[in-house]
Specification:
There is one protein chain. By secondary structure, the chain is α/β, with parallel strands linked by helices. Helix content is 31%, strand content 22%. The protein contains 19 helices and 31 strands. It has a seven-stranded mixed β-sheet with strand order 4-3-16-15-17-18-19, sandwiched between helices. Strands 6-5-7-10-11 form a five-stranded parallel β-sheet, with helices on both faces. Strand 25 and strand 26 form a beta hairpin. Helix 3 packs parallel to helix 10, helix 4 crosses helix 5 and helix 16 packs across helix 17.
Length: 640
């Protein structure tokens, strides 16, 4: 084992357990994963760990013969040992809005909603669409679906009616939960009206028999007789107990549509048993879970991060989760730091985008808060630059908190590569090491395995419990997308570099490569070079058609201070870090970049804007800030 498995300053505590897990998972995977299955409550314990096969028709099969219910593992078993422990703390964005739910109360509220769903005719295997902001009812709805064996489909609150209609039709949802009106800072999002418009666009809208409307703001909204029902009124009529549906380990728990997909929506299907084991295992190992933790993952529940680390992982482990409705700096900078101090948050898991935004604020904002309760910090969604990593560690963690940068995907179900807190020494900017049982490998363009230090396509040689089983109603697309580029392996779509001691660095999507006069230049390499300039907060490099060179390189840069930064600094950084041949054709200094709410930069949009190809920009409502697109278009036109 590399020396890196021993965290600095931790020699006084046992450090061999993590190494032991790595070795056992490598040498005895079947026994290891059956042991990890004991993290859950099973009605029938599984007969085998994995019967997965990456060849032929591709089968992802975990915990055959096992019978369980996800909500029982998250709720019922904790009633026996800690019924009055706080399970969920919810704060609204307005002052005074706060709920604290014990495991007993959360269980009762889940059961009431589960009984409503059964009364409305929802059966095991039916899809239920959840279209809610970050309110407690979103968590309750997911667990209620799990309790009756319904497959939940959580839909982003910013989707347009067209985007919602696509996903409602593809999933065949029979019930919808939505809000009257959602809040996002000063904005009010007409959730119910948007859902009504979406249902009108569905050719098979008659499949949706009922719409449960959660009164988030209490605003008057249109209610269609017989179809639309008031959530609060319906749950008040039901009993606080509900028998849990026995589920086979392979039965779907949820399907989740990946952001930024083209063509028909790509709904990844996650099974119950394997996913729940992976959620519990990774939450415990990556974040060094303690029973006293108050765990705050800031992701929206409509993303996989929200599924695994807002809901299923922490609750399966008997933890306390923090759910906050509001924005990081509304109504004033530092709002999220206040939430941490007010609630004693111990583990804070957020995106590099949030970290970079906080870096741009006055340093007094974060330094004026205590943040003494924090012990672990984490990031997710994209690689974090070394500068942002150090700022997060020094300013938010006060130099004493472990920082875990996590690499994973919707398809993986949970964290795959990271520096597990207090077990693996992190390297700022690196994804670090694969978790126990994760067989990451690099392949070259001829699908040959890269040995030792090197660079290549990031693949997985063996299945893991959290792996998606398929694409909803399209297994052929699942096989084509993930298993044909590198036969016999799961291909992540990312490139990576591995150091001699096994540490991985993610170099970006392999299709994010620009070919300039025969030079293949990874956009991540350009962005890494630009990040060495401390006046740059973030950047995005894209390729556009070029008459002479085939492709030209264009860079969008967000400076720390507008009006002061000069584009020549980018050229110097790229020349020094990559070479003169990689100096961009054009540099645009911008206030922000188009991103999904999970913090991923939508480079497809940047490519089209930079190339003045403004036809077919697609649905912009999925962006965190759709208005930024018009701003970028105007800037590019002005500098043409």
């Amino acid at each position: 084992m590399p020396e890196a498995f021993v965290a600095p300053g931790q020699a006084a505590k046992p450090t061999g357990q993590y190494c032991d897990m790595v070795l056992k998972a490598q040498q005895e995977p079947e026994a290891f994963w059956l042991q990890q299955a004991q993290r859950l409550t099973w009605q029938t314990f599984p007969q085998a760990a994995s019967r997965s096969d990456f060849t032929g028709d591709v089968v992802i099969d975990w915990y055959a013969g096992g019978v369980l219910n996800a909500s029982e593992s998250c709720l019922d078993r904790h009633l026996q040992t800690q019924p009055d422990k706080t399970a969920l703390i919810w704060e609204g964005q307005d002052e005074g809005q706060r709920e604290v739910l014990s495991y007993r109360v959360l269980h009762e509220r889940v059961c009431r909603l589960a009984n409503v769903m059964r009364r409305l005719g929802v059966k095991k295997g039916d899809c239920v669409a959840i279209h809610l902001p970050m309110v407690a009812e979103g968590v309750i709805a997911m667990l209620a679906c799990a309790r009756i064996g319904a497959i939940h489909v959580v839909l982003f609150g910013g989707f347009s009616p067209e985007g919602l209609a696509e996903r409602l039709s593809d999933s065949g949802a029979v019930l919808v939960l939505t809000a009257d009106v959602a809040r996002r800072g000063e904005k009010r999002i007409p959730s119910k009206e948007t859902m009504d418009a979406a249902l009108q666009r569905c050719a098979d809208a008659s499949r949706v028999k009922h719409v449960l409307v959660v009164p988030v703001t209490g605003a008057d909204v249109p209610m269609q007789a017989e179809r639309d029902l008031n959530y609060a009124h319906e749950v008040a009529q039901e009993l606080p107990t509900c028998p849990a549906e026995p589920m086979q380990a392979q039965d779907p728990l949820f399907l989740l549509y990946t952001s930024g997909s083209t063509g028909r929506p790509k709904g990844l299907v996650h099974g119950t048993g394997g996913y729940m084991v992976w959620a519990s295992f990774t939450h415990a190992v990556v974040f060094d879970h303690k029973p006293t933790d108050i765990f705050w993952c800031t992701a929206d529940i409509s993303w996989i991060t929200g599924h695994t680390y807002v809901v299923y992982g922490p609750l399966a482990n008997g933890g306390t989760i923090m759910v906050y409705e509001g924005l990081p700096s509304w109504p004033q900078p530092g709002r999220w730091w206040d939430v941490i101090d007010r609630n004693g948050v111990t583990v804070f898991y957020t995106s590099p985008t949030v970290v970079r935004a906080a870096m741009r604020e006055d340093e007094a904002v974060v330094r004026s808060r205590s943040l003494e309760s924090l012990r672990i910090l984490g990031t997710v969604g994209e690689p974090i630059s070394p500068e942002a990593w150090h700022w997060f560690h020094d300013e938010v963690g006060k130099g004493r908190c472990a920082v875990v940068d996590t690499w994973w995907q919707t398809e993986t179900g949970g964290v795959m590569i990271t520096a597990a807190a207090n077990s693996v020494v992190p390297r700022a900017g690196a994804a670090s090491l694969p978790l126990p049982g994760v067989e990451a490998t690099l392949l070259d363009t001829q699908s040959a395995v890269v040995q030792g230090a090197g660079e290549g396509l990031l693949c997985m040689a063996r299945s893991w419990p959290g792996q998606a089983q398929s694409i909803w109603q399209d297994h052929a697309r699942f096989k084509q997308t993930y298993f044909t580029t590198c036969p016999g392996y799961y291909f992540t779509g990312d490139g990576a570099r591995r150091e001699a001691d096994g540490y991985y660095w993610i170099t970006g999507r392999v299709d994010d490569v620009v070919n300039v006069s025969g030079h293949r230049i990874g956009t991540a390499e350009i962005e890494d070079a630009i990040a060495t300039d401390h006046e740059v907060v973030e950047s995005a490099a894209v390729g556009i058609p070029h008459d002479l060179k085939g492709q030209g390189l264009v860079v969008f840069v967000v400076p720390r201070e507008q009006g002061v930064f000069h584009p020549d600094a980018v050229n110097r950084a790229v020349a020094a870090g990559v070479g003169r041949y990689a100096v961009p054709e054009k540099i645009y200094v911008v206030s922000d970049l188009p991103k999904t709410r999970s913090g991923k930069i939508v480079r497809r949009l940047l490519r089209k804007i930079a190339a003045h190809d403004l036809d077919g920009l697609g649905d912009l409502s999925t962006l965190a800030d759709p208005d930024i697109v018009d701003e970028l278009i105007a800037l590019v036109k002005a500098q043409a």
